[in-house]
Design a protein that fits this description.
It is a single chain. The protein is mainly beta. Helix content is 0%, strand content 41%. It has a domain of 65 residues: Thrombin, subunit H, CATH 2.40.10. The C terminus is likely disordered.
């Protein structure tokens, strides 16, 4: 699915809607406190929550790929840098 609408809420859920049909595609669950920010890059989504975690998701499968922990307070924003999720190729000479 290439065209999506993302919604996050104080209910701890992320909804992914099909932009063409306007049908709910999937609901992502994992946070235990309100979600304060989301960011999308390609098929990857990151969510930031008051539960002091950020979560990396695959928007095609709904799989949670990684939970980032260690913050002392709730998270309020997210920023993806260009190609941050692209593998880095190291060349040795």
């Amino acid at each position: 699915m290439k065209q999506i609408i993302l919604c996050s809420s104080k209910d701890t859920l992320i909804h992914i809607w099909n932009r063409e049909t306007l049908a709910l595609h999937m609901t992502l669950r994992g946070h235990t406190e309100p979600i304060n920010a989301i960011a999308l890059q390609s098929s990857r989504l990151v969510s930031a929550s008051g539960d002091r975690t950020a979560m990396l998701w695959d928007t095609y499968t709904g799989e949670r790929l990684k939970t980032f922990e260690g913050h002392e307070r709730g998270l309020a924003c997210i920023e993806f840098k260009v190609n941050i999720l692209t593998p880095i190729h190291v060349v040795s000479f």
